[in-house]
Amino acid sequence: MHTGLLLYLLLVGSMTSPATQQADDAKKQVGPQDISIWNHCDRTTEFYLQNEGSDWRPFKLPPDQIGVYSDATKIKVITNRPDKSQTDAEYDLEKGKRYELYWNQEGERYDVATVQPRR
């Protein structure tokens, strides 16, 4: 009977989704001088980071992945629309915070939001 329970616990314990595991790993790695960005979109999303007025640096993040960055004070996400126009969202970043990239249905663009800590 103990063998069956042990096997059950091993199977259930190994069912952690890759996204959950990556989120847990990123939480462990984010220091007080870092920011983390989670791509909550269904596709790889390109965004740009800037540190204290330096040049914008491009980054790509696959869906459900979390990136940890240390030299960034601003983020910009550009959305290319079907009519060939572009719209962008640009925000200041705060060290030690977690952010998510998501599709803003109302604004019809990719956007950024602060992830609220769990209580």
Task: Give a structural overview.
The protein is α+β, with helices and mostly antiparallel strands and 119 residues long. The protein has a single domain, classed as Sandwich (Immunoglobulin-like). It has helices at residues 2-13, 18-29; strands at residues 35-39, 45-50, 57-61, 66-69, 74-80, 86-92, 98-104, 109-114. A four-stranded mixed β-sheet has the order 4-1-7-8, covered by helices on one side. The protein has a four-stranded antiparallel β-sheet with strand order 3-2-5-6, with no helix packed on it. Residues 1-23 have low confidence and may be disordered.
How many domains, as an integer?
1
How are the strands ordered across the major sheet? Answer: 4-1-7-8
What's the order of the H and E elements?
A: HHEEEEEEEE
Low-confidence stretches: 1-23
Largest sheet descriptor: 4 strands, mixed
**What is the CATH architecture assignment?**
Sandwich
Shape: globular
CA distance, first residue to last residue: 37 Å
Top CATH class = Mainly Beta
CATH domain fold name: Immunoglobulin-like
What value does the Rg take, in angstroms?
A: 18 Å
Helix % is 10-25%
- Strand coverage percent: 35-45%
What is the β-strand count? 8
CATH superfamily: Domain of unknown function DUF5300
The overall average pLDDT, rounded, is 80
Count of helices?
A: 2
Helix/strand/pairing category: alpha+beta
